């Protein structure tokens, strides 16, 4: 049995990073896209790691992907190891006051169209100050971003303030306004006079978000007839554009279709809500020069 009795090599770290990605993607197929290597190469890497450790890490096959008990523990240990390596590199950089290393940032979907462009300008400033900084962006749901910041996989996240977690620091960024929309092929689009009541909206199929919402936002969705769900705003837009559904979208997301005459807001004075977005960091996290620079530049914007 060839276990980790000797020093951990670069090849070992590479395989552990592949294993981490497979777990976070939920299987080999999704990891293939994330890692940009073939499923066969991923399978060989995981098999090599299992041989090296002397036990099975995961079940894979027709029944799907799942971790064994040992696999779950190895995943936790892998996160600790890779986080420690990054902390070491960050601390050494701090001694030199030199920006070199990684910024791992998680962002909620469809924020790039916000007119404020604070994130874009901040990333540009960070790159100017540290040309050798590697920026890794992950577009994932808010709950995954919060989890990633808490366990150290992400240095910073951009999320809606749906609930405040005690282990996180919040740096306010944006207020986003969302309205109820229909497409140009929907019956409500031609009701230019808007002579109908909010109660009549129940006559029409609606797409609702399949992600966490505040009580105020849920109250706005309550009068609608839920006939479809979507896990992100892009999915909601897809269904609205079919002409068969109405649904809430942020103004900055809907703007392109409004400009082209393909969408319009429905009862905008009554059917709207505001979402606050913040940058989140882990409370008590070790000093990180790259993250500190990012947050300082964020404040300047």
Architecture overview:
The protein is of the alpha/beta class. The chain has three domains: 10-80, Winged helix-like DNA-binding domain superfamily/Winged helix DNA-binding domain (Arc Repressor Mutant, subunit A); 85-173 and 277-300, Periplasmic binding protein-like II (D-Maltodextrin-Binding Protein, domain 2, 3-Layer(aba) Sandwich), CATH 3.40.190; 175-276, Periplasmic binding protein-like II (D-Maltodextrin-Binding Protein, domain 2), CATH 3.40.190. Helix content is 41%, strand content 23%. It has helices at 10-25, 28-35, 39-53, 69-96, 118-129, 142-150, 215-221, 233-240, 251-259, 289-300, and strands at residues 58-59, 66-67, 100-107, 132-139, 156-160, 168-183, 205-209, 225-230, 247-250, 263-265, 272-282. Strands 3, 4, 5, 6, 9, 10 and 11 form a seven-stranded mixed sheet that branches. The protein has a two-stranded antiparallel sheet with strand order 1-2. It has a two-stranded parallel ribbon with strand order 7-8. Strand 7 (205-209), helix 7 and strand 8 form a beta-alpha-beta unit. Helix 5 crosses helix 10 (289-300). The longest helix has 28 residues, at 69-96. The model has no long low-confidence stretch (mean pLDDT 87).
């Amino acid at each position: 049995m060839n276990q980790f009795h000797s020093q951990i090599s670069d090849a070992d770290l590479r395989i552990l990073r592949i294993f981490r990605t497979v777990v976070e993607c939920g299987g080999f197929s999704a990891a293939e896209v994330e890692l940009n290597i073939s499923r066969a190469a991923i399978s060989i890497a995981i098999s090599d790691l299992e041989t090296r450790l002397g036990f099975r890490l995961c079940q894979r096959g027709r029944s799907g992907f799942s971790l064994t008990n040992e696999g779950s523990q190895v995943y936790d240990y892998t996160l600790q190891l890779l986080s420690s390596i990054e902390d070491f590199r960050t601390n050494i950089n701090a001694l030199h006051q030199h920006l070199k290393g990684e910024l791992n940032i998680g962002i909620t979907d469809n924020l790039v169209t916000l007119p404020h462009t604070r994130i874009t300008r901040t990333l540009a400033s960070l790159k100017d100050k540290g040309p050798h900084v590697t920026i890794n962006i992950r577009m994932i749901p808010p709950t995954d971003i919060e989890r990633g910041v808490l366990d150290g996989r992400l240095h910073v996240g951009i999320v809606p303030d749906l609930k405040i977690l005690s282990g996180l620091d919040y740096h306010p960024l944006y207020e986003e306004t969302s309205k109820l929309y229909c497409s140009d092929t929907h019956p409500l689009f031609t009701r230019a006079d808007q002579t109908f009541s909010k109660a009549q909206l129940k006559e029409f199929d609606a797409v609702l978000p399949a992600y966490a919402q505040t009580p105020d936002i849920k109250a706005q969705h309550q009068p609608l007839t839920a006939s479809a769900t979507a896990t992100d705003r892009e999915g909601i837009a897809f269904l609205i554009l079919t002409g068969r559904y109405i649904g809430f979208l942020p103004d900055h997301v809907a703007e392109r279709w409004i400009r082209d005459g393909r969408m319009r807001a429905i009862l905008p004075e009554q059917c709207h809500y505001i979402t606050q977005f913040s940058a989140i960091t882990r409370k008590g996290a070790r000093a990180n020069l790259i993250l500190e620079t990012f947050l300082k530049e964020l404040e300047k914007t």
